[in-house]
Each structure stands twice: as C-alpha cells, then as structure tokens.
Design brief:
Elements (H helix, E strand, L loop, with lengths): L3 E3 L14 H12 L4 H10 L7 E5 L5 H8 L3 E5 L4 H11 L13 E3 L6 E4 L6 E10 L9 H8 L3 E12 L8 H10 L16 H8 L3 E9 L2 E3 L2 H9 L5 H6 L2 H12 L9 E3 L2 E8 L2
Parallel strand pairs: 2-3, 2-6, 3-4, 6-7
Antiparallel strand pairs: 1-5, 7-11, 8-11, 9-10
Helix pairs in contact: 1-8, 2-3, 5-7, 6-10, 8-10
Keywords: Methyltransferase, Transferase
Protein name: SAM-dependent methyltransferase
InterPro entries: SAM-dependent_MTases_sf
Length: 287
C-alpha cells in the first residue's frame, strides 16, 4: 500500500474557546472519556476485535478506545487533527518512551497537518475496521464533513471492512440532554453550528449513505454519566467541547454557573452526580 494523505473536512469552526486547552484535555482523559467505555466494549465484542484487526480510529482523542483495542491484540492507528492536547495524551498512553524501539505492531498516531493526514504506509495490509467514536447527533452541524472524511478513508480499507459510527440516543433516553440545552441557550442564536439539538433517528444512517457505505447492523448501549461531585461533572461536560460556542458567546464563569444549576436534579444525597444516557452505534461496510 502506498502512502496516502486523507484531507480532514471540518464544519465551520466556532471561535477558539477561552479556556485552558491542556486542562480541558486532561479533564477529558481523566473524567469524561471513560463514560463511553460501554460503547467501545459493545462494538469490540460484537466485531470480535483481536489480533487480526487493523483499526483506524478517526478523531481518536486521548486514545482510550485505541488502548482498549490494542489490549485485545489489534494493530491501531489513531487520527486526531483538531485536538493536539488530547493527541499528546494519547501518545503518552500508546507509544513507547522516546528512545525505545517500536515493534511491528506498535500503535501509530498522527495529527495530520496542512497537507492532510497520513494514515497508510507502504507494505502494510489495508484496515479492516474504521471507527468514528466521537458521538454525533446532539449539535447542529456536528456531522458536517464526516461523510466526506469517511468516503476519503474508505479506499484505505479492504473491501467490506467494518465502519462504526456513534451517536447520541433519543433525548428522552438521555438525561444529559437537559444539561446540554444550556449550550443552546447561551450560544449565539445566529450561529448555524455549535448549538444543541435533539438527536434524530436517522443521523447515523444519513452519514453512512452520503459516504457510500452499506449499513450492516446497529445497537444501543447504556452509557450513564457518573461523577464524584458536581464540580467534576462540570469539568467533564465542558471538556467535550459541546459548550465552546456558549463560552465564546458569554464567558466561562457564566457557562460554569448555568451548567452547575442544570445538574442539580441529578445530584444524589451523597453528592455524586448520575445521569443515565443511551448511545447508539451503526455498523456499516465499505464498498
């Protein structure tokens, strides 16, 4: 296989959030990322991810899903073009210390760059699993560009390879929806992207169809958001980036205050926060 550059197509970006990006990446890695572990486990179990798996993870964040796949014996490549602070944490998790030799099955991580994202190298077999675990379906425009990206990486996979997309479940099954509405209330009402919206039934299918993929199964997974206290919950939720437009339109203190207030119905007597949610995944196949 010859080296391949895949260009990253992104929706119109919100203004840069006025937050400490390194701290936010740590909050994602230490607090929020684990909330999606049930989805990763369900997908890997269903697809029997193991030593024969060559996985390409799109928007891999700080690499927890890749680490779980690698622990099953999979060869993993992660692409994180928009969150360099998360990618640095993924490298700490997955790559050997500087100076140590990398084995043939070592993870590969890349942030791409102006010329695109290098995700394939010569003399290696094609991928047989592509994952896009970053959930879509709760913000206007959050799927923009994903179909184009999937269409671009499909040639790197073998024929009939699995492609997994993940989205938020119905609002009535996601108690976090009431908190995410704060993002819409505070964000610029004229902005077409970056505001919360109810997840739609066919969000994932529409992305797959635009990318030329063939749906081949789906599932729902309970992913409760549980936090040690309200402060941790605020830090975890803000680390998702779903409130960036709200922070840009107001300020971090205002968003922090209103999210804290919205969390009150989910604070239990011992001070912990518990919000049951359901996420949905779609399994598709490359042409």
């Amino acid at each position: 296989m010859t080296p391949t550059l895949v260009r990253r197509h992104l929706p119109h970006a919100a203004p840069a959030p006025r937050v400490d990006l390194c701290a936010r990446a740590r909050d994602w890695s230490e607090i929020q990322e684990r909330m999606l572990v049930p989805v990763y486990e369900a997908v890997y179990e269903r697809l029997e991810v193991g030593s024969g798996t060559r996985l390409l993870g799109l928007d891999c964040g700080s690499g927890l899903a890749l680490l779980m796949a690698a622990s099953r014996g999979a060869a993993v490549t992660g692409v994180e073009p928009t969150e360099p602070e998360r990618l640095a944490l993924a490298r700490d998790r997955l790559l050997p210390p500087e100076g140590e030799r990398r084995g043939p099955g070592a993870a590969r991580l890349t942030d791409g760059g102006e010329d695109g994202i290098t995700v394939a190298v010569p003399d290696e077999p094609p991928y047989n699993l592509i994952t896009a675990f970053q959930p879509i379906g709760c913000m206007a425009g959050d799927s923009a560009g994903l179909s184009t990206l999937l269409e671009s990486v499909a040639p790197l996979a073998e024929r009939g390879a699995y492609v997994v997309l993940v989205g938020w479940g119905p609002p009535e099954r996601c108690t976090s929806s009431s908190v995410l509405r704060v993002a819409t209330k505070l964000a610029d009402p004229l902005r077409s992207t970056g505001s919360w919206r109810p997840a739609l039934r066919d969000d994932l299918e529409e992305v797959a169809q635009r990318a030329g993929l063939r749906p081949d199964g789906s599932g729902r997974v309970a992913c409760p958001f549980g936090y040690a206290d309200a402060e941790s919950a605020v830090r975890g939720l803000l680390s998702t980036g779903l409130f960036d437009a709200a922070v840009g339109a107001t300020d971090l203190a205002q968003v922090d205050k209103e999210v804290t207030e919205a969390l009150q119905p989910y604070v239990r007597s011992d001070g912990t926060v518990w919000m049951p949610n359901v996420f949905r995944y779609l399994i598709a196949r490359t042409p």
